[in-house]
Amino acid sequence: MRKGFMLVEMITAVVLLMALSLAFVPVFRTLLQDVPKMYQWANINSSVQDLLSHIRADIDAAGELPDAYGGVTTGERTLLIEQPEGIVVYQLNKDDNVVRSILTAGQGQESKIHEENIWQTSQAKIKWQVWQKAGSGFAVEITTWIEHETPRGVEKKLANSRVFFVGALAGAYQAK
């Protein structure tokens, strides 16, 4: 009876362990690189979804979508929504964060900001476009995506487009 391993047995065991470790490298790479990226994208997407739910609620309660109010005009970086308590303004600032504020003005007074919310969406891209009919805005199309840099270039992740109609759910809320 022998008390050790032969050299051939040890070499065979080392070669098998190396082959198995090479087979599991992609799994470990995924765990160490891709899972944290996906977690970050999920957090960014969650922030975007929260922003969209606020925009939807504001548009559902809207009277109309004005083109301009108090020197602020609707455009690529600004969305105006008229409500009874004032004009809700969504603006993309220079850091691509979205700022929501409510502007009110009395007779002959300047517009004043009464409330402000900020959504940090620096890696998410947001575009909105007001749909108009007969010169009046009746819906807003909002397109969102997350830009991800890869060696092949920039990729769009979690891209979506939504259309919200002014006062679309007002009747549904009153019926309940």
Explain this structure to me?
By secondary structure, the chain is of the alpha+beta class. It has one domain (31-175). It is built from two helices and nine strands; from the N terminus they run H-E-E-E-E-E-E-E-E-E-H. It has helices at residues 7-60, 170-175, and strands at 68-69, 72-73, 78-83, 86-92, 98-104, 112-119, 124-133, 136-150, 153-165. The strands form three sheets. Strands 3-4-5-6 form a four-stranded antiparallel β-sheet, covered by helices on one side. A three-stranded antiparallel β-sheet has the order 7-8-9, with helices on one face. It has a two-stranded antiparallel ribbon with strand order 1-2. It is rod-shaped.
Mean pLDDT: 84
Domain module count: 1
Q: How many H/I helices?
A: 2
Please state how the strands of the largest beta sheet are arranged side by side: 3-4-5-6
- Coarse structural class: alpha+beta
Portion of residues within helices: 25-40%
Low-confidence stretches: 172-176
Can you tell me the overall shape? rod-shaped
The largest pleated sheet is described as: 4 strands, antiparallel
Number of strands: 9
Terminal-residue CA separation: 86 Å
Oligomer: single chain
Helix and strand pattern: HEEEEEEEEEH
> How much strand content do the residues show?
35-45%
Q: How big is the Rg?
A: 27 Å
Describe, in short, the structure shown.
The protein is built from 2 helices and 9 strands. It is of the alpha+beta class. The strands form 3 sheets. It has a 4-stranded antiparallel beta sheet, with helices on one face.
